[in-house]
Specification:
Elements: E1 3-12, E2 23-32, E3 35-41, E4 54-56, E5 61-64, E6 66-68, H1 80-87, H2 92-97, H3 102-110, H4 114-129, E7 133-139, H5 146-162, E8 166-174, H6 185-202, E9 208-213, H7 220-232, E10 238-241, H8 249-255, E11 260-263, H9 269-278, E12 281-284, H10 286-291, H11 300-305, E13 310-312, H12 326-335, H13 341-347, H14 350-355, E14 372-375, H15 382-385, E15 392-396
Parallel strand pairs: 1-4, 1-5, 6-7, 7-8, 8-9, 9-10, 10-11, 11-12, 12-13
Antiparallel strand pairs: 1-2, 2-3, 5-14, 14-15
The structure holds 3-[(4S)-2,5-dioxoimidazolidin-4-yl]propanoic acid and fe (iii) ion (FE).
Residues 70, 72, 240, 315, 317 line the site of fe (iii) ion (FE).
């Protein structure tokens, strides 16, 4: 059924309408061939849509399909043992310096074949899809050798072939320095990271280039080398910045017109201004803040005051954020970061689309992809308010159920 008309629905459109959430009450939404054809108040429905195959949603809420714009769902193994160590007092950085952390996931990822990686990722992806996610960003960065970085990206893309979800892939070769290059980060960039980026791009596997700018990872100067190559290849960039300390990563990212700067707990006022100037999205990741028991809050008030778009994501990864629930990220964004439920929901729809450079989704407007989530709730704030409860009624991906 390629044409459909949804009626008797609340529509959180996030379009430019003068109402919180861009909310249309008693709304109707028509879609055809994978794209939204009309949205608005049911009373205003043009006659041409009136006889389309109709579904009465009984007052349920429709939002744009949710977008998780920052994940690392493809990886081997898990880090439950490290979780225990951190609970006994070791910090995330101490674990990383002792050969655990990202590098331990690198070991398990290198030994897993494409089939195993896929099999391990799918339950996480399925959990996200069950919560109404229709677009999912996935990063490489647990291979740190050319072959495994490519395998991670191929696996990520393969997910889009076996599940109804649109996958965007980010190359994160500059995630950590692998043990065989310990103390030789620049040589790692020359020998592995940059050639891997080129090979991945050649294979059409890269939508954006990411990096981890941090004391335990790469300096701003080293990240700039990766971003220069991205620029030569015409690829947009994004950056894990100011997660554990302020190295000026967000300013660097902004100077390359980054799609987004992510984490940002230690972001300075100068960093906020740089993001405001470049129009980059601030992607906040409350799952990592929570897991690491961080106490430094990202500067939400300042981001807001400077009109920096704010997105929220799970950061689903085996170390700092073993979170496969975007609904819980919404709740954490409100409870931990003091975002409003409206900002939180915009952060997993309209702003998350921006963070991925996608202008064909993220709002309910004519012409946008028919990626829709239908919720058994009567007000959009309910999606942020509940904890551990999933009110998804139906998910429509590219116009199909
Ligand atoms: N920051 C993070 O939170 C993840 N990567 C990054 O650069 C953590 C990755 C991990 O601990 O495995
Ligand atoms: Fe991350």
């Amino acid at each position: 059924m390629s044409r459909r008309l949804l009626t008797n629905a609340g529509l959180a459109t996030f379009a430019d309408i003068d109402a919180p959430y861009g909310l249309v009450e008693h709304g109707a939404l028509a879609f055809e061939k994978g794209a939204i054809a009309w949205t608005g108040a049911e009373a205003d429905l043009p006659a041409e849509f009136a006889d389309w195959p109709k579904e009465d949603l009984g007052g349920c809420l429709v939002t744009p399909g949710l977008i998780d714009c920052h994940t690392h769902v493809v990886f081997g193994g898990n880090r439950a043992r490290e979780f225990e160590m951190r609970l006994q007092g070791a910090t995330y950085e101490e674990v990383a310096r002792a050969g655990g952390g990202i590098v331990s996931t690198v070991r398990s990822t290198r030994t897993a074949g494409e089939e195993a990686l896929l099999e391990q990722a799918l339950p996480r992806v399925d959990a996200l899809i069950a919560e109404g996610i229709t677009t999912l960003e996935i990063k490489s960065g647990y291979g740190l050798d050319i072959e495994t970085e490519l395998r991670m990206l191929r696996t990520a893309r393969k997910i889009g072939g076996v599940r109804p979800v649109d996958i965007r892939t980010s190359f994160l070769g500059a995630h950590a320095v692998p043990p065989e290059y310990k103390g030789r980060a620049d040589a790692y960039l020359d020998d592995i990271c940059l050639p891997a980026l080129e090979a991945a791009h050649e294979e059409g596997l890269v939508d954006a280039v990411d990096g981890f700018c941090e004391g335990i990872a790469f300096s701003p100067g080293q990240i700039a080398r990766v971003f220069e190559r991205a620029k030569e290849l015409n690829l947009p960039v994004k950056l894990h910045a100011e997660q554990l300390s302020d190295l000026g990563g967000a300013e660097l990212a902004a100077s390359y017109d980054a799609l987004s700067a992510d984490h940002l707990e230690y972001l300075s006022g100068k960093g906020v201004e740089a993001l405001a100037r470049s129009g980059s999205v601030a992607v906040l990741l409350p799952g990592a803040f929570y897991t690491l028991r961080e106490t430094q809050l990202p500067p939400v008030d300042l981001l807001r005051a400077n009109s920096v778009p704010i997105a929220l994501a799970t950061d689903c990864n085996p170390g700092s954020s073993p979170l496969a629930s975007l609904l819980l990220a919404l709740n954490m964004g409100c409870t931990l970061f003091r975002m409003t439920p409206e900002e939180a929901l915009a952060g997993v729809t309209r702003e998350a689309a921006k963070a991925l450079g996608l202008s064909d989704r993220g709002t309910l407007e004519a012409g946008r992809r028919a990626d829709l989530s239908v919720w058994n709730v009567s007000h959009p704030a309910e999606l942020s308010y509940r904890i551990g409860f999933n009110p998804l009624k139906e998910r429509i991906f590219g116009g199909a159920q």
